[in-house]
Amino acid sequence: QIVGRLSRDVAKKHHHEDPALYMDLVRRGVVLRIMGGTCLKPRLTGVPSIELLPSCAQEASAFLASLDVFFYRTSTTMTEGFGRVVVEAMACGLPVVCEERGGYLSLLEHGRNALLFEPGENPVDLLMKLCTDRPLRERIGNAARETVTSIYSKKWREELAAFYCC
């Protein structure tokens, strides 16, 4: 299975424990693709199962389509106000595994449309659960897509416009 993440290519966008997590996943047979991950090269150079790409190396939709699972957390010194990349992954029907810290939490429900872990908790078991359980991966990915399409539907946009225009 392929686990990946997408972000800007700066160290503060990556949690300091992520390189060790990625190595643990590789030992378990997982392939990783990280777009916006060249800043991790000093800690992950020469690992054939980890592809570190610069930001914008591919169209986001094409990159996300190459993944089975999307993983996201940031440095402890940074909190995402919204986390657009999480929403983009969900819109592509990917199951997401995210730290319970950030603006994206308002859209996520553990076990329904995402798997969530607490700050300081190791997410390896959640990631492996999705990598090894295709029906679970599909169920959560489908629910993730349904969440995003319902929130950003034409009806929702019309209701929002009506609220602010009157």
Description:
The chain has 166 residues and is an alpha/beta fold. It has helices spanning 18-27, 41-44, 60-65, 84-91, 124-132, 134-151, 154-165, and strands at residues 2-6, 31-35, 50-53, 69-72, 96-99, 115-117. The chain has a 6-stranded parallel β-sheet, sandwiched between helices. The longest helix has 18 residues, at 134-151. It is globular, with a radius of gyration of 16 Å.
Spans where pLDDT lies below 50 across 5 or more residues: none
Distance between the termini: 49 Å
Describe the main β-sheet briefly: 6 strands, parallel
Query: What is the gyration radius calculated from CA atoms?
Result: 16 Å
Q: How many helical stretches?
A: 7
Got a strand count? 6
What fraction strand?
15-25%
Name the helix and strand elements from N-terminus to C-terminus, one letter apiece.
EHEHEHEHEEHHH
The portion of residues assigned to helices is 40-55%
Mean pLDDT figure: 94
Q: Globular, elongated, flat, extended or rod-shaped: what is the shape?
A: globular
Q: Helix/strand-derived class?
A: alpha/beta
Query: Strand order, biggest sheet?
Result: 3-2-1-4-5-6
